[in-house]
Amino acid sequence: QRVPLDWAQTQHNLGLALWRLGQLEKRSERLREAIDAFQAALKERSQERAPLDWAQTQNSLGVALWTLGEEEGGTVLREEAIAAFRTALKERTSAKVPLDWAETQNNLGIALLVQGLAARNRAMLEEARDAGGGERSVQRLHLCRPAPPPLVLRGTIARYQPSDRQSRAVAGFA
Description:
mainly alpha
């Protein structure tokens, strides 16, 4: 490998393509291949070497893990996705890259909300509320971006429509 960061970018792009195919084809195999590609990219895209690229790949890995978790009903995969979003936020800060921060913060908030509702976990719901609040501060700018992964998670959350009672409970945390 003469140009390792270019190779890592190619792996990242491959992961995005495989993730999209996995969504369209509803095939877990493609999603697993996407996860493998993102993980391969992270071998060269280290936090020390390319911090913002590393964070981008962590976020993409989180989206792929979440999507596979939704396909297979895997709590462990969804927890790994949450961990990847949190990891990405180490470099994707509101001060450095506000739009990318908002994207990842939004992903984290939605993932925590879905997991919190499923597990009836108050702490997770409170964290979801806090994560979602950060996204609102740059939401107008964020909406100008072309279809980012948060729209995928927004689509999955539609399957988790809370009952009126759950909605009141979440609202009570605000």
